[in-house]
Design brief:
This protein is mainly α and 138 residues long. The protein folds into 2 domains: 67 residues; 55 residues. Helix content is 64%, strand content 0%. The longest helix is centred in the first third of the chain and has 25 residues. The mean pLDDT is 92.
Length: 138
């Protein structure tokens, strides 16, 4: 137990350590091969020295343990992240992007020939319809 620290400092500690934990877990997952195998527009290339991976994982584990210790010492709250809310946030981001891909919105980037408009619009509308279905399902 420590001296009472003010709520502003506790909040700053909690938010900062939350972000660090999230990033460390993403690194850990990436090193274990936890990334999309069939991505369309990108691919991960594992160029990390295989001999270094066990030590990297050990250091990450030590860091996570230290973060946990800090949470306990400073009595920092654990945040609950609802899966539904996380999915809805991602769907909302996708909706904004798809709306910006509608042919009438692309005019700001240059002239869009009618033939290309006819190719883009059905796909964007189809994706928007599927997105609406995902919203309904949640």
């Amino acid at each position: 137990m420590t001296e009472l620290i003010n709520e502003g400092i506790k909040r700053r500690l909690r938010v900062s350590l939350f972000i660090i934990e999230k990033d460390l877990r993403q690194i850990k997952d990436a090193l274990k091969g936890g990334h999309p195998e069939e991505a369309i527009f990108y691919r991960y290339v594992d160029n990390v020295n295989p001999a270094s991976k066990p030590r990297i994982m050990a250091v990450i584990a030590d860091m996570l343990n230290e973060i946990k210790e800090m949470r306990e010492i400073f009595e920092l709250e654990t945040e609950e992240i609802e899966l539904r809310a996380k999915i809805l946030a991602a769907l909302n981001e996708i909706w904004v992007i798809l709306e910006e891909l509608r042919p009438e919105k692309l005019k700001g980037y240059g002239r869009l020939p009618g033939s290309d408009k006819a190719l883009i619009e059905p796909h964007v509308m189809s994706l928007l319809n599927k997105l609406e279905e995902l919203h309904r399902l949640l």
